[in-house]
């Protein structure tokens, strides 16, 4: 019997802390797609084109897309071999250092718990497009109850809701690309524009390489969420078959949904258009998608895009609730959080982990609307780098996993999925992650005076992560795991 086919007998106590493999191939594939489509594409893409010009924005998004592709193939290799809901935390603990795994787990839980609050804030702004005089608390409570309800049902409930959320986003992007292409060639919306918007001013790259670097940083945030497939692998049916299937399609989806969409926007809207600067959800009429649909003669474009972006926001909140709940469950299983949070319902939902995550998200949201929101701003800033830190962990874990796999005399042909371009892929992603993390607010270091406040606001998440990592290392006296001692045994989470 090979490792991936092992099964174990579980005691009643163990059954009470086990998740259920309820995610189908169809749902897992849509989670992989939907994770990367959100307000970053629908709103912030216009600002990226305005800042760096059409060529600069396209170059920055393509570079980040390549980094994300390598990260997802790295994650795919580990997640199909070792499908656990602890994902990044487990891999970091086993293949690098238990202290890194501890810090990665808490970092990821905190990141998504705070993100739930951010999505609630965004959803109330979006709903006021239709109901401007309604109270924010009413809608935030309703949306929080909806997200909580979807996660309470079962993993199937989460998977099915995320499938349809992702389907709406995907359909919108495909329709946008088709409509936009027809407009570029003059088949729809009047005169053909061709390449003329790439020829104005100092295009194709506006603002030089500094502007491209700035967009590169912002583009990284747009892609965050693609790593959710690593968490979902722990509850997917036949992960050895379904995870590789979902990962293989990531490259083409990044190409289609980001590179092609941004190319269409840049060809149809000149980078000098002042409306592209308004990238907040309050300015739905200035979304590049809305502007293009308006030009095509679709009078209801703003209302439709508001509904689509509301779907994207709720999808992010739904995914955030799922990811943070599973990570807290894993931390409890490992003894890094109170054991209470490892308990699950009969349907395999970590109920106490879910309730605590909901409470944190709700408290953070309340902090954003009462007083001047200062507490919430600091919380949000502290979580800003968390996604990149998770990516950093994926890259270094995969590099060490592959080295350990070979060092222990295993055959690479036995892997359910093998990432191509090793070791270039993970090393390339690792270097770019370090650049993104380090360059978050590089302008604060430039000039006559160092902007200490800007540095503190931008980088506060980094010392918090290092405190978790080095603090645990100091208390537990952990060391980097030698390659021949890395645990490669595949076992069900019990």
Explain what this protein looks like in three dimensions.
- The protein has 494 residues and is mostly helical.
- Helix content is 66%, strand content 0%.
- Mean pLDDT is 84; it is low at 1-15.
Largest sheet: none
Uncertain segments are 1-15
* CA gyration radius, whole angstroms: 22 Å
H-E string = HHHHHHHHHHHHHHHHHHHH
Estimate the strand proportion.
under 5%
Average per-residue pLDDT, rounded, comes to 84
The overall strand count is: 0
Secondary structural class = mainly alpha
> Tell me, what's the shape?
globular
**Termini, distance in Å?**
19 Å
Count of DSSP-assigned helices: 20
Percent helix: 55-70%
Summarize the structure.
This protein is an all-alpha fold and 494 residues long.
Strands, helices and their partners?
Blueprint: H1 12-15, H2 25-34, H3 39-42, H4 44-81, H5 87-95, H6 98-127, H7 136-153, H8 155-184, H9 208-223, H10 228-232, H11 239-248, H12 250-268, H13 288-295, H14 301-333, H15 351-369, H16 374-383, H17 386-407, H18 424-438, H19 452-459, H20 461-476
